[in-house]
Amino acid sequence: MSGSALFDTYARAPLAFERGEGCWMTTDSGERYLDFGAGIAVNALGHAHPHLVAALTEQAGKLWHVSNLYEVPGQRRLGERLVASTFADRVFFTNSGAEAIEGAIKTARRYHFVNGHPERFGVITFEGAFHGRTLATIAAGGQQKYLEGFGPKAAGFDQVPFDDIDAVEKLIGPETAAIMLEPVQGEGGIRAFPTQSLKRLRELCDKHGLLLIFDEVQCGVGRTGKLFAYEWSGVTPDIMAVAKGIGGGFPMAAVLATEEAASAMTPGVHGTTFGGNPLAMAVGNAVLDVLLADGFLDDVARKALLMKQGLAAIADEFPDVIQEIRGAGLMLGVKCKVSNAAFNAALREHKLLAVPAGDNVVRLLPALTITDADIREGLDRIRAAAASMSTQHAAAS
Ligand SMILES: *Cc1c(COP(=O)(O)O)cnc(C)c1O
Predict the structure, then answer these.
(1) Is 231 in the pocket of ligand 1 (CB under 6 A)?
(2) 3.40.50.150, 3.40.50.1390, 3.90.1150.10, 3.90.550.10: which CATH number matches 17-48+295-396?
(3) Rounded to an integer, what distance in angstroms lies between the CA atom of residue 33 and that of residue 277?
(4) Ligand 1 within 6 A of 139 CB?
(5) Which of 168, 180, 298, 314 could be joined to 213 by an S-S link, Cβ 3.0–4.6 Å?
(6) Ligand 1 atom 10: residue of nearest CA
(7) Is 272 annotated as contributing to ligand binding?
(8) What are 71-121's pLDDT values in tens digits?
(9) Is 272 exposed, middle or buried (0-12, 13-18, 19+ CB in 10 A)?
(10) pTM of the model
(11) Under CATH, which number does the domain 63-291 receive?
């Protein structure tokens, strides 16, 4: 936008929101939108969730920041709770997804270094991946459009086609440290790795002494109907990056690791100023209170089914607009026949917010707290948007 003081890095929609409640957001001119984007899977519990508001405001009156020079009780508590609910034994808190991925990569490299293999620094990733926008994470993501113009690609990242496990096996060499993937690719267009592939990757890592890193920045924190997406497969990683939903909208993220994988991360080796500050930890603990409550995740899975069935019916009705519905839980992708940007714009005209992704997909990522009524309202709007783009006007009316 010319005339703005801001870097021109975002193609923003001409909308400014003033407040939100649950799955609804209201613009500064009073228009209400149904939010099926949730800040790109960040607002896991919707907008202005009373429990999160209470946790943040209570902490805000006590202490905001102390630095990691001191104990942070909220970190200990959230760390223990994440450990109790996952494969992990150790947690390191960061501020963003990319920073968590950087921490995961550093943890893997340092592990090999301390175990006498400084030459092992290579990380194998998959086409379509998105791991963030720092210099190392654009190298890990391997997408030319994000690498271009930023100097030499950071060394130590090699990529294979999506879900090509044979190619991974061929690429493993004496310099390989880790294999990294999103169990369900987000930006890449909501593409899930089959359980069988995850099992083979685990076997390859065990056979070659590599670390398996899962990027659950987008697919984690209840998004797929389990606390973490890897639970569907039964395959556990050695290291995992978590972000987006974990703060419910407050910027925070974490690296989770097994005792062994984290063993080389000793005092002074890594750090962050803001990571794990008391405000973030208060909100993170409050998010977990809700997610871990009895029956919450089962209800996410039930609502996800409702939404997927509704979307499948719309896809059947407008095959000239929608090619397929895919994804897991409340991380759903509408693979479009029309341009996904145009379909996303049509959704917005029907006052529904969604998020475009790669592979001509539009992502639907509503808050996990969405009501059945809001799902039905959303489906009505999605149907109307599809109808507006369909040439089958008879069917659409
Ligand atoms: C969003 C995302 C990231 C990067 O997170 P930031 O907080 O934007 O740095 C990394 N990996 C995945 C899978 C993501 O969806």
Answers:
(1) no
(2) 3.90.1150.10
(3) 32
(4) no
(5) 180
(6) 131
(7) yes
(8) 999 999 999 999 999 999 999 999 999 999 999 999 999 999 999 999 999
(9) middle
(10) 0.97
(11) 3.40.640.10
